[in-house]
Write a structure and sequence with these properties.
Strand order of the largest sheet: 1-2
Distance between the termini: 30 Å
Strand content: 5-15%
Number of domains: 1
Largest sheet: 2 strands, antiparallel
Shape: elongated
Radius of gyration: 17 Å
Helix content: 40-55%
Length: about 160
């Protein structure tokens, strides 16, 4: 497949991306749970997840969870061009125009796009199934692609490529 005159690019498809984000979601949930248990105590987690309780929002816990999630995704995207899930499935995130490491500001926009993609029943993620370049709404917002891994891209200097 060609992308704006670039060399052949193999886009990562929906099944591979869905498995990757499922794994990342599991890992970030485990990490968040461990941090919440350390901060509030294990009993807090038990109470939070007891069956039959009406869920209430604990803004302290929600802030911690969302902060961990944002740092997880944006951090891995910035430093390794992929989360552990994407790495396991040989995927990486690149700038859709240059096919190089995306700028940090684009990765932050991509994360915000994750939230927007999820809101209408996950339609923004399902969009990958129909898009020619396999882009979800978050990819379109940030001008990124998820492609099959190209090791040569990982040798790029991080300092100049992810600056805002």
């Amino acid at each position: 497949m060609h992308d704006f005159g670039h060399a052949d690019v193999q886009y990562a498809g929906f099944p591979r991306r869905a498995l990757a984000i499922s794994l990342d979601s599991l890992l970030v949930t485990l990490l968040s749970s461990a941090v919440l248990a350390a901060v509030f105590g294990f009993e807090y987690l038990v109470e939070l997840h007891q069956a039959g309780k009406t869920p209430s929002v604990d803004w302290r816990a929600a802030t911690i969870e969302q902060s961990i999630t944002a740092v997880w995704f944006i951090g891995f995207w910035a430093w390794w061009m992929a989360t552990p899930g994407k790495q396991l499935f040989d995927c990486q995130i690149v700038d859709a125009t240059t096919l190089r490491r995306p700028r940090f500001s684009r990765l932050v926009l991509r994360y915000i796009g994750y939230i927007i993609s999820l809101l209408p029943l996950g339609l923004g993620f399902l969009w990958v199934l129909f898009d020619r370049r396999r882009q979800g709404w978050h990819d379109k917002m940030a001008n990124t692609l998820v492609i099959m891994q190209d090791e040569s891209l990982k040798t790029q200097s991080i300092g100049t490529d992810i600056s805002a």
